[in-house]
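Hi U.,

Before I forget, here's the chain from the pilot set. I'm dumping it here mostly so it's searchable later in email.
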Amino acid sequence: MDNTTLDNLRAVYLTAEDLRVAASILYNAYHDDAYFMEALGQQDTQQYEQKLRAAIREELNELWQQEQPLIGLFDQARLIGVACVITQQVPLGEARYWHWRLKMVLGTGWKSTQSLINKETRILEHLPSNKCGILQFIALSPNEQNKGYGAKLIQAVLSWCDEQPNLDGIGVFVSNSRHHGVFVQQGFCSIAQVDMANVAGEILFYTKK
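Structure:
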């Protein structure tokens, strides 16, 4: 997975220098996401945008510190896509570390932090084993969407998953029907219908080959 060639693209692990651009890509992609709009509260646009930036920043930093897979899709030297996986090798949901909780509360507020924790807990409840990952984020730069690159980014994640001896598969919560179709085409199956922060969606799961 260190250098997977996808046509003219490369899927590689992100470096510390890539995190700022990765955060920008994720922010733009998730700005209008139904779950985040409900969880973070979109009534005040400026506050919502600040909370979203904080949530993405803190989660990226935590994933980096915990040495979780952050996969970037590059067009030559240009980062155009990001996928972030967290595994059950680190505490998740209600077991999240106190320092993550504190930073997330300071950035997004107590209610929003609890919503993020509850979402993770709900996903964990439906995963088939304690050796599964969760796809926390997956996004493309706005100008690179609708080119088939999303499928290629998912394929890179699944290639990584297939190589992990201690992983049974990867789960993801999906509330967008268009995204749902892309995941299913790549081998994900629905394992539960759930509501997250009053947003209806499904937990999809990929079983490692």
